[in-house]
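Ticket #4471: complex job returned nothing on first submit. Input attached below:
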Amino acid sequence: MFIEICDIKKAFGEGESRVEVLKGISFELEKGEFCVLLGPSGSGKSTLLNIIGGIDRADSGHISIGGEKTADMNEKALTRYRRKHLGYIFQMYNLIPNLNIKENIEVGAYLSDNPLDVDDILKTLGLYEHRHKLPNQLSGGQQQRTAIGRAIVKNPDILLCDEPTGALDYNTSKEILRLIETVNQKYGSTVIMVTHNDAIKNMADRVVKLRDGVIRKNTLNEHKQSADELDW
Amino acid sequence: MRDPLNRRILREIKGEAGKYAVIFIFMVALIGIASGYFIADESLKVAYDNSFADYNIEDGNLEFAEKPDSSVLKACEDEGITLYENTYKDAPCDDDSTVRLFTDRKEVNRVSRLDGELPAAEDEIALDRLYMKSNDLNQGDTIVLDGHGYKITGIIALPDYSALYKDISDFMFDTEKFGVGIVTESGFDRVSDSYIHWSYSWKYDDPPEEVFGSEATERGDELVKALAKKAVLANYIPTCRNSAIKFAGNDLGHDRIMMIVMLDMLIVIIAFVFAVTTSNTITKEANVIGTLRASGYTRFEMIRHYLAAPMIVLLIACIIGNVLGYTVFKDLMADMYLGSYSLVSYKTLWNPNAFIDTTVIPMIILIAINVIMLASKLSLSPLKFIRRDLKRHQRKKAFKLNTKIPIMTRYRLRVLFQNYAGYLTIIVGIFFASVIMLFSQMFSPLIDKFSEDSINSMISKNTYILKAPVPTEDEDAEKFAAGSLKIVRGDFSEDVSVYGISADSRYFHAALGSDTVEISSAYADKYGLKVGDSITLSDEYGENDYTFDISGIYEYPSSLVVFMDIGFFNDTFDMDEDYFSGYFSDRVLDDIDEKYVASVVTEDEVTKTSRQLRRSMGNMMIIFVILGIAVVVLVVYLLSKVMIEKNAQSISVAKILGYEPREISGIYIRTTTIVTVLSFLLCIPLESKALDWLWRAMMMEYPGWLAPDVPASAFIKTVAMGLATYFVTTFLLKRKVNKVPMDEALKKPE
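Support reply: We reran it on our side without changes. The output follows.
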């Protein structure tokens, strides 16, 4: 198993204001699998993604990636882990505002020993002609495509997507989902995508439904749809 | 209803406690020092000005060659003056210094008793405060004068010796080597009469309106000419020309403009620091501002709101600074003057000008700069604020950087250009801090060099100035004639020594023309003179002007001197053909009776200026270093902090992407490091020019010349101190970068 998530628990606050966000989450993912974490606001899906991404720590339980437990890693090792294995896509893109589009992707390439060709990625993402623009000169969809470029340029093993279409319109969302699907298929990256959009589950290999910090359903998708076929 | 936004002003100050604390402490210290300086300066100046009436300071004094009889005194008083005996003895002390002893003065130049008691017994003395301080003497100690012990019973200041000039022709006074004291009549008699000077003070029966006005000058000069016809005078000087009385008064208030300029420049830097940090706050709170503006808040209300916190902090800092100025710093600043001058007792006076300079004007500067910034920043439409679109002119593309430049370098360059306003403020701050630190660092080497130059440029090891042209058998002696002329420049005038040098001199190593002069390099440097130029000098009373052509510049960097052939000298000043007034000699001339020697210029004599400057300015230099370091910390830390906060989300993203802390610091802090290091290094030529200009402008207001010379070591020390301060600051900045949480990037914009 490539990713093992075992009995992850996480709470915030203390005393009366203590809230248990994750109450023992366990599931496994194969390499190259496309997983959608589905659930309403407050279900704990983003917290779980952050723990998988090594930017937050679980109170108990562990996550193992390719046999390495993230809980055993110190800050330095976690940084190396993110650098080596992960690509991150955020809802609000989080591009570096004072770097142009190409430079934002190069910031991702810098971290890898074997990065993909930046110009190829710009062309693939339809951003080549915009490569000298600053992020705030682009539309939301173009910015998110840049964020995807930054995440995939280092050819990561795992692509973590936190509501990547949350701030986009229908058409742009589908365009972004198509790109993520391509990355999953073309580069074999394991994709874990957090969303509250129920329709997106149809393009996943695995759907993990969360509610109130527990898994309500963990199912393999027998009739997987392409991004183009999705509708909501 | 009161503006509910006011409730968040204190929270804003609390939330940014670090930033406001740094600025607050700096401002309190700065305002305290400035206020203390202005108060001390003004209080001492008022005490000095009042001392003329309070202590009945003489209008002039004269010294008879021998004890005058009553007919001589009467003849002098017929010139419209009253004479008061002020006989003194220059008693030698065991440590080579001289104490000028007077008996108590009842009418003129009355004694200001600062502590203790005036002497009551023949073996008691009340001594000048500054002489005691310079020689580590305390009340109760015994000082041996002319072989007799005197117990120090009191500390005094004599109003006619506020600057302890031993001789009116001295370039500088030396408080370690010369002091004044009061003894009883019998205590006076204990000292040998060979040290006696028949000195009398005069007061006009009808005094001029101003002590130092032109009327006083003219009357003083007329009087001494009239008196010289009635008696054989050894010395005479009207008060308006007496450095021992007027020098301190001239110096008090002298540095006020410089202090105001320094204070205002630092306030401008602080105002820009506030402007940059407030601008950052506005960017952070853009959507809130947009919402409030959309809800009906006016631009003025928003400006008022964002101006409130810096104004409150500055106002409190000004108030506390002023309180400290009146209490702690006033004494520190007064000590600077009291370290140089022997001033009469003074009272601290409320000084409205100090309040205006240290509170009103800084507030105006702060408000003006920040209102301009806020008005410009808040002029965008509410919608733009809500959309966080705060750029006035949207660039279509980022400016191009060569893609061959490594991405990390390009990243740093982008950070640099993004924060150019902050970096410009840092560069200006570093420039200013460096000038302040450099000033302190150049001072000691400058004094050392001046001292060394003074010794090296001595024409002979001993220069004898004679009262009368007496012969000597010593073959080492070489005759010269000497006099003094004045450079008059508007209200300012200063003495120039004029030497008539013997032909084929063994001591003066240049051939002098028969009708031209050579001037000292100090004179040439101060007034920008060169060979071929002409100079016009006036005699003591401004009756005659003398114009000379300069045929050479003689390497003599320690004072303003004109050298000419002795024949030309005697011809010019209508002296006898064989007139001379002194000897150059490397050996001590034993065969000249002391009574014919007015003074002997030795190595000790020529270095007293440097000793006095070091004593009086030493403490000030430490304050300059502290101030410079504080400016570096203030601008670098606060503005770098703003840049880090501004880029918090990018830093957070970089962390999530897997950038290591050192790599992130490499982007955000190394950029500041490069700017800081380059600023320290590249500003050196500019600092050198600025300091040269400042020093020359300052020295033009003083008699004599100390050429500006900043040694490489001063630059090295300044850069080293500045960079050491910066690198300590970077620890705080690195901590700040490390503390940016990764979830910063996960926050959804509000």
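The first strand of chain A starts at residue 3 and ends at 12. Closing as resolved unless it happens again.
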